Amino acid sequence: MRMVDIIAKKRDGETLTNEEIKWFVEGYSRGEIPDYQASAFAMAIYFKGMTQQEAATLTYEIAASGDQLNLTEIEGIKVDKHSTGGVGDKTTLVLGPLVAALGVPVAKMSGRGLGHTGGTIDKLEAFNGFRTELEREEFIRLVNENKIALAGQSGNLTPADKKLYSLRDVTATVDSIPLIASSVMSKKIAAGADAIVLDVKAGSGAFMDKVEDARKLAKAMVDIGNSLGRQTMAVISDMNQPLGRLVGNALEVKEAIDTLKGEGPEDLHELCLTLGSHMVVLGGKADTVHEARTMLEQVIQNGKALEKMKTFIEAQGGDPASVERPETLVTASSFIEVKADTEGFVHRMDAALIGRAAMVLGAGRATKEDKIDHAVGVELVKKIGDSVKHGETLAVLHTNKDENEAVKDMINRAYEIEEKPASAPSLIYDTIE
Ligand code: URA
């Protein structure tokens, strides 16, 4: 085979064979296919797309490019949840203990990542002593004993994705649905889940701004998962404003704990019940989402979900007393109110800008080397649809910095306030099965 022929075939809109895709992924991983040919290939895919079969094969081959976790020693149907990412998204922190309390095994590999806040691991490290470097045996034992464990990514998972993603990043080929779908799904497949629930975000703080594009991405990922033998479904949810009211690592842990107690913000509670119900059904613990939802509401009300969070934190070296009393988690030294200089109703929020503001305060990393300040972040007092009076507080910065004017300005710019009333956006746009 010659790479130039494969590029030409895709450029001309023809369908590639499984062998051609496999040959590309293997050759590129081994460094035998140069970046300039891989770039041309990615651009051809960007313009011509891929069939469902091509995308599934690409995913399978990327997953096969490195280690694949074998979780067969874990009893039960392992259901993974993946979110395409958004500001204030702490659903993993809630969903893990919530579905584990119903006996669905949660064997989660998570990353740190760059961005507005840390990844799930960074957030959990707000608990003093929490360990995520677990050997395989310990990880499996904890999931079998407690139904939940969370480990940092170890081993050599999907090296072809790392290489291809870096190339796409600098060749304007990130925004291709088959390439995004195969990149995300290859990681899920390699991480060993039996079933996958996807939360695909749409809106100003998401990868996909428009619901229609989010729907296309969700459909591509669901088709890939199902055709590779993992039961997969997706929920399309709103990211036109941050999820919940708190953005920042320890702050998000606090909000997750409130939600496990049934005292969280309405949007976070609702999204967790929606995603959780699908996880419980795919995990074989309920026949319908309706039944699953009732079961989830019960474990919130009877305290079992919170109890599971304590067990989970303690098993990995964290202090379970902080679950009982989240006010003992790290807090910032100053709280600075950002006040409205106009009045009316909040029509739009720039979720991405709020995320950047949290990052500037130190909640997230701009580069891999940056250190995270777990205490800091943004508390959103007003959200879309709320009325605002002149001088009222829009948001509160939780900060350890002396100089916060630039961040205040970012938050002010993130709120669009108009005279006429506005209503809150829908939270769930669609479900793709
Ligand atoms: N996230 C991924 O993991 N891959 C992509 O291609 C885009 C977002």
Automatic annotation (TrEMBL):
<dbReference type="InterPro" id="IPR013102">
    <property type="entry name" value="PYNP_C"/>
</dbReference>
<dbReference type="InterPro" id="IPR000312">
    <property type="entry name" value="Glycosyl_Trfase_fam3"/>
</dbReference>
<protein>
    <recommendedName>
        <fullName>Pyrimidine-nucleoside phosphorylase</fullName>
        <ecNumber>2.4.2.2</ecNumber>
    </recommendedName>
</protein>
<dbReference type="Pfam" id="PF02885">
    <property type="entry name" value="Glycos_trans_3N"/>
</dbReference>
<comment type="similarity">
    <text>Belongs to the thymidine/pyrimidine-nucleoside phosphorylase family.</text>
</comment>
<dbReference type="Pfam" id="PF07831">
    <property type="entry name" value="PYNP_C"/>
</dbReference>
<dbReference type="InterPro" id="IPR017459">
    <property type="entry name" value="Glycosyl_Trfase_fam3_N_dom"/>
</dbReference>
<dbReference type="InterPro" id="IPR000053">
    <property type="entry name" value="Thymidine/pyrmidine_PPase"/>
</dbReference>
<keyword id="KW-0328">Glycosyltransferase</keyword>
<comment type="subunit">
    <text>Homodimer.</text>
</comment>
<keyword id="KW-0808">Transferase</keyword>
<dbReference type="GO" id="GO:0016154">
    <property type="term" value="F:pyrimidine-nucleoside phosphorylase activity"/>
</dbReference>
<dbReference type="InterPro" id="IPR018090">
    <property type="entry name" value="Pyrmidine_PPas_bac/euk"/>
</dbReference>
<feature type="domain" description="Pyrimidine nucleoside phosphorylase C-terminal">
    <location>
        <begin position="345"/>
        <end position="418"/>
    </location>
</feature>
<dbReference type="InterPro" id="IPR036320">
    <property type="entry name" value="Glycosyl_Trfase_fam3_N_dom_sf"/>
</dbReference>
<comment type="function">
    <text>Catalyzes phosphorolysis of the pyrimidine nucleosides uridine, thymidine and 2'-deoxyuridine with the formation of the corresponding pyrimidine base and ribose-1-phosphate.</text>
</comment>
<dbReference type="InterPro" id="IPR017872">
    <property type="entry name" value="Pyrmidine_PPase_CS"/>
</dbReference>
<dbReference type="InterPro" id="IPR036566">
    <property type="entry name" value="PYNP-like_C_sf"/>
</dbReference>
<dbReference type="Pfam" id="PF00591">
    <property type="entry name" value="Glycos_transf_3"/>
</dbReference>
<dbReference type="InterPro" id="IPR035902">
    <property type="entry name" value="Nuc_phospho_transferase"/>
</dbReference>
